[in-house]
Design a protein that fits this description.
38 residues, mainly alpha, 92% helix
């Protein structure tokens, strides 16, 4: 049971990391295109 909780926690952590990274990339992309008008 403890190992299951741990794996679930690790999965959540990875998912949040991935989601945060993609969100940051999108925000950076929009910001860059909005400011620089490349």
């Amino acid at each position: 049971m403890a190992s299951f909780t741990l794996s679930l926690f690790k999965f959540n952590l990875l998912f949040c990391l991935f989601l945060g990274e993609s969100l940051a990339k999108n925000a950076f992309k929009y910001d860059k295109s909005g400011v620089m008008k490349n």
